[in-house]
């Protein structure tokens, strides 16, 4: 049986070191143990093996599918074997969406097929598809500038590119083109919608991703970047209007369920104070969900396992969640983040005891910065964290963290403070939501650097006296 830290202080430590004192904001022992967690992860954290087994055993894991459900059961068994406490699978109802047949083609003036995929949550076309004249816009704003009724009977095509950015803000700026664009086109009379994939590469595969679902939908598709360029050239080389055919067999096909997998290392002094970390278990059906988000699951689980293996416990509880159904939209009113919403709703009366939350959901490249909640920049926690994280090539981001990742959104909206360990994302959207989201895209050493940062920072946070809510309120 592991002993509480108070029973070990001055007598037993990790590799001869002492343990954290409950009376010091950030003790030297905290820092030294965090450094050893960091160094142990760099020797081989075990994260790659987790994502390797997940993606090999279960492949794609669409929300509500048998594959997602089986991977959740496997995850619970894995975390039980790791020694985590309070392992639980919490299920919630879900509508199962399937892609079905997808086909997009130019009929005239230059007949040819285009590489395309249906957007997640979209609807089917009639069996023979939709044939109509295409109206091509270089930017999303051009579509928004069109008056009501001006696109009646047309297929809308938006060719706007996604700008690469280290922090992914180019994707964030482009996301409304996919999420809201089909409804904007439909409100102007369009019968179909096509966008240039929200990707930052020039390879000929298409990116899927969720669009809003509900009344007023029209069939919606993404085409590969080279095919978007092909459409632009076809328009330039012909005086005739471009006619296209869209075929979709997509739709919600059955009632099903998804689930969150929850486990934790319980704090010895403040077991009811919880730090929530994790990633999402579901993935799109085109690849195997290695970078989105098998990597995030592996990183946070491996980090918690390093802490579990210590001879001492953290002062606060650290909880890892494998959220279900992050990707696919749901019929109103919930739309996306079904697992995250279920987690938060189920614990609505306990969220005041959630100390902080963050998710790893930005691929598998290296972490380059740490962002803390407002008011925490001039704190012992920040100083201790940067002493430990700087050797990993991580800098402190002075801009306060406003969120901890998609699945933490309901928690943040309920007042839970968020922190971010920001990953390099310049090429994340080359592969995100595509058939190329596979294990080969992951560098094991980069994954270990992530685990090193997470394990070290979590130890410091769990043993700190910091109160993020109080610091934020003082701003």
Automatic annotation (TrEMBL):
Natural source organism: Brevundimonas halotolerans
One family name in Pfam for this protein: Peptidase_M28
Leader sequence segment: 1-25
Molecular function as annotated in GO: carboxypeptidase activity; metal ion binding; metallodipeptidase activity
UniProt keyword annotations, A-Z: Carboxypeptidase, Endoplasmic reticulum, Glycoprotein, Golgi apparatus, Hydrolase, Lysosome, Metal-binding, Metalloprotease, Protease, Secreted, Signal, Zinc, Zymogen
SUPFAM superfamilies: Zn-dependent exopeptidases
Subunit architecture: Homodimer. The monomeric form is inactive while the homodimer is active.
Name this polypeptide is given: Carboxypeptidase Q
Localisation: Endoplasmic reticulum; Golgi apparatus; Lysosome; Secreted
InterPro entries: CPQ, Peptidase_M28
PANTHER family: CARBOXYPEPTIDASE Q, PROTEASE FAMILY M28 PLASMA GLUTAMATE CARBOXYPEPTIDASE-RELATED
This protein's GO CC annotations: extracellular region; lysosome
GO biological process: proteolysis
Domain Peptidase M28: 260-457
